[in-house]
């Protein structure tokens, strides 16, 4: 059995809303029996999951091995010292004590920890969840935006030591292949995925029950039309742009309501803007939610909205579509490859409040067409059993085991 260590500062038992966190939880939850994974991560609860101690955590009904090296905020709020810096320092101490000798393969979801393993001969893989050219975008809130040249130099030095680099952005894959043309086969597009066991259309009765429960929970009328946003309240997701876009629509349509699921550093600014808008009775802040709760909320809403300034391939969009919910989004990252205007949602013409407002209005005018089943059908290729096969088979090859995906259906994004 191959032993694989996944390195990233996340807690699989916490309600962390990041797509990277969800991606890693999926790897752990769907892992095959011939591959054994340990997440070398961070804890949000030092009493239940102490720093420096191995424990087993429940990930979607599956036990996963977990070793936290640092403590992080339970709501994902940033610390004064970047979490990556704290984590890499702790990982260095752990490695010097011999804590990683048991593993056959090392996986990373940020490049910075690779600094510690440039001379390590074990197979090393990196999954990049963004095309990092975004750090030169003035809308970026990634810390590297203050020194993009330094990140680019670090990337050039470190990625050559990786045996396999998966990217959730095609643009990043194309850029790396052009730069390292002699080893272009190291780089591969890796889409994100949705949890097909949790996110689905459901029966008519389940959807009716979810609609009634959502409106009752928020104190809204039974016939309220509900827009739902799921994401961190930060500059990347740009919830203030969303509020600017929906305010005119809500003022013109008294039955239109907005549910915002998530938390983050902009919560205070969001609360202030909601109060200023005069729409507080029709905008609900649900805070961070997890798994089944989000699934029920999606089934009960009418349209999913995303106002991001930049993205990789957001899992939240796939979860909404898989739940039969049409998506309206800014045209960022891989989202334009997922949204088929008039079929499963609408794309804003650009990243602005007027453009997003117009796209939402267009979708609302369809009055529930197409139906949930037609919407969900557009993302069935992004089930975990299809997407994650590439990661598992890469680990099998590196461990000298037999790959198994030849019998699986071919992905449509290749």
The biggest beta sheet reads: 8 strands, mixed
**Elements, N to C (H/E):** EHEEEHEEHEHEHEHEHEHEHEHEHHHH
Going by helix content, strand content and strand pairing, the class is: alpha/beta
Q: What is the CA-based Rg, rounded?
A: 21 Å
Strand content: 15-25%
Tell me the number of helical segments per DSSP (H or I, 4 or more residues long): 14
Indicate the overall shape: globular
**Secondary structure: helix percent:** 25-40%
Biggest sheet strand line-up? 3-4-2-1-5-6-7-8
Span from first to last CA? 29 Å
Q: How confident overall, as mean pLDDT?
A: 93
Question: Tally of extended strands?
Answer: 14
Uncertain ranges: 406-410
Give the helices and strands, then pairings:
Blueprint: E1 2-7, H1 19-29, E2 35-43, E3 55-59, E4 62-71, H2 83-96, E5 105-108, E6 124-128, H3 148-158, E7 164-167, H4 170-179, E8 187-189, H5 204-218, E9 225-230, H6 239-252, E10 256-261, H7 267-277, E11 283-287, H8 291-300, E12 303-306, H9 315-322, E13 327-329, H10 335-338, E14 345-347, H11 353-364, H12 372-377, H13 384-387, H14 389-399
Parallel strand pairs: 1-2, 1-5, 2-4, 5-6, 6-7, 7-8, 9-10, 9-12, 10-11, 12-13, 13-14
Antiparallel strand pairs: 3-4
Helix pairs in contact: 5-8, 6-7, 6-11
């Amino acid at each position: 059995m191959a032993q694989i260590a996944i390195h990233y500062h996340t807690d699989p038992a916490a309600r962390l809303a990041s797509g990277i966190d969800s991606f890693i939880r999926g790897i752990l939850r769907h892992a095959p029996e011939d591959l054994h994974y340990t997440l070398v991560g961070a804890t949000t609860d030092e009493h239940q999951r102490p720093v420096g101690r191995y424990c087993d955590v429940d990930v979607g009904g599956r036990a996963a091995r977990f070793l936290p090296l640092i403590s992080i905020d339970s709501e994902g709020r940033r610390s004064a010292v970047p979490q990556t810096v704290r984590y890499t320092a702790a990982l260095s101490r752990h490695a010097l004590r011999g804590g990683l000798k048991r593993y056959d393969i090392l996986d990373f979801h940020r490049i910075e920890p690779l600094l510690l393993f440039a001379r390590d001969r074990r197979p090393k893989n990196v999954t990049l969840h963004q095309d990092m050219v975004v750090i030169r975008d003035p809308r970026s809130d990634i810390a590297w935006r203050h020194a993009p040249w330094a990140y680019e130099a670090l990337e050039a030095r470190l990625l050559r030591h990786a045996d396999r680099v998966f990217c959730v952005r095609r643009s990043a894959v194309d850029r790396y292949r052009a730069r390292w043309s002699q080893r272009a086969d190291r780089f591969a597009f890796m889409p994100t995925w949705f949890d097909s066991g949790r996110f689905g259309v459901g029966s008519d009765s389940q959807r009716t029950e979810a609609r009634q429960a959502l409106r009752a929970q928020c104190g809204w009328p039974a016939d309220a039309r509900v827009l739902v946003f799921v994401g961190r309240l930060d500059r990347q997701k740009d919830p203030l742009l969303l509020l600017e876009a929906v305010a005119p629509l809500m003022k013109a349509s008294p039955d239109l309501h907005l549910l915002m699921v998530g938390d983050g550093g902009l919560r205070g600014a969001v609360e202030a803007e909601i109060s200023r808008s005069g729409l507080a009775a029709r905008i609900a802040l649900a805070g961070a939610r997890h798994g089944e709760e989000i699934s029920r909320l999606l089934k009960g809403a009418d349209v999913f909205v995303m106002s991001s300034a930049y993205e990789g391939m957001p899992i939240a969009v796939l979860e909404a579509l898989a739940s039969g919910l049409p998506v309206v989004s800014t045209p960022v990252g891989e989202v334009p490859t997922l949204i088929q205007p008039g079929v499963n949602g609408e794309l804003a013409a650009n990243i602005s409040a007027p453009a997003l407002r117009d796209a939402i209005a267009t979708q609302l005018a369809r009055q529930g067409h197409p139906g949930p089943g037609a919407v969900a059908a557009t993302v069935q290729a992004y089930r975990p059993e299809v997407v994650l096969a590439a990661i598992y088979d890469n680990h099998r090859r590196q461990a000298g085991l037999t790959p198994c995906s030849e019998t699986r259906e071919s992905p449509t994004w290749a």
